[in-house]
Amino acid sequence: MTPLYRVDEGLFPYATASQRAKLEAVNEHRSMRAAARALGIQYNAVAETVAAVRKKAALQGYSPEHDMTRTVPEPFVLKGVSTYYNKDGKASGQWVKSQLAQEQYNAMVKAAIGEFLADVPQLPVAPAPLDFQGDIIPWIQIGDAHLGMLAHAAEAGENFDLKIAETELCGAIALLIDEMPNCERIVVNDLGDFTHYDNMAAVTAASGHPLDADGRISKMLRVYSRTMRFIVERCLTKCKHLDVIVNQGNHSRVNDLWMRELLTVAYGHTGRVHVLDNDNVFIGYRMGATLVMVHHSDKCPPARLVGVMTSDFRKDFGETEFHYIDTGHVHHHFASKEHPSVVIESWNHLASNDKWAHEAGYRSRKAITVVLRSRTYGDVGRRVLPIEEVRARLARADQAQPAKKTAYAV
């Protein structure tokens, strides 16, 4: 006979509302399988929820079966526990060490994403074009956009804030898409660091250095979500299928994880928007005789990227003729040939420098590029749209708007 099972109620504070409902069902029905039947869901959904809550609680220091009952507050996580036992084998003292560890924090955030997005609406999209070419796939290379960064012209040579970033990036995307013919597929390649920071404190995750931020994170996330929606829906007016790659960046890692999930939930029902898995920071994309690997490149330098491609994607590498590696992070364009058949390129971005980058002497051309990649012939062309053209077109559009009427005043 299967023994009755109960979930420790001390785990409940670590569960989301949806997770708590599953835990309560387990305790009510005294087994995970019975709870699953009562809820009308798969057994694995209940078992995985219990395991996820146990893991989250343990990261906070709560695991009674291991004599861990001294918890640490979020967003800190447990670094280690030293427990002292008396001669009777009972715990007599404990040393709890904590730290704000980004990797564990990311894992906690990722575990909560599914619950957070459960009620996101499925968004309608424009119908696909009926006529299109299929061999060439345009790649829209979005270099580090750094939404949420703040710069003042007096300090950094140019002004930059959320309004400027959204206006210029969406304006550039609109110009590029309007120029394109109808295509079977388009790739939007967010090369990482789409947002300038990914935490409440607006500091770098690795070292805690303060960043120049425009407003609070909630304001930045609204602009981020709105901008990504604009990009996706504008692209869908010119293609049957849209492949979206959200690379993990060192400034934006947590936001990159949930944006991938958000886009999947919001557009997956269309059958036309395909958001590639970004759990692995090295993402491969094969199109006929052409293989592309994308990576933000904040940790793995270009000299090691070819080895990653030929190792991680060895089958695809051997079966293709044209090989490209796209990176971001450094903000300027470079192309290098590290291997007889591999071209590594870093792509420009549109964002201005912040005060730190300006004073450190970093300078680069500001532009966004569409690369035309053929399934059959590899890279066959590109359109580079410089920030000067973006701003000139936006200025002309503003001038073309009729003047607003005002009332007669005395």
Dominant shape: globular
The total strand number stands at 13
What is the helix tally?
A: 12
Helix/strand class: alpha/beta
Order of helices and strands: HHHEEHEHHEHEHEEEHHEEEHEEH
Largest beta-sheet details: 6 strands, mixed
Q: What's the arrangement of strands in the largest beta sheet? A: 6-5-4-3-12-13
CATH domain fold name of the largest domain: Purple Acid Phosphatase, chain A, domain 2
Q: State the CATH class of the largest domain.
A: Alpha Beta
Terminal Cα span: 91 Å
As for the number of domains, it is 2
Low-confidence segments: none
The average pLDDT is: 86
- The Cα radius of gyration reads 25 Å
CATH level 4 superfamily of the largest domain? Metallo-dependent phosphatases
What is the CATH-assigned architecture of the largest domain? 4-Layer Sandwich
Q: In a nutshell, what does this entry contain?
A:
The chain has 410 residues and is α/β, with parallel strands linked by helices. The chain contains twelve helices and 13 strands.
Describe this structure in words.
With 410 residues, the chain is of the alpha/beta class. It has two domains: 97 residues, no CATH class; 275 residues, 4-Layer Sandwich (Purple Acid Phosphatase, chain A, domain 2). Helices cover 35% and strands 22% of the residues. It is built from twelve helices and 13 strands. The strands form three sheets. A six-stranded mixed β-sheet has the order 6-5-4-3-12-13. The longest helix has 19 residues. The radius of gyration is 25 Å and the shape is globular. The model has no long low-confidence stretch (mean pLDDT 86).
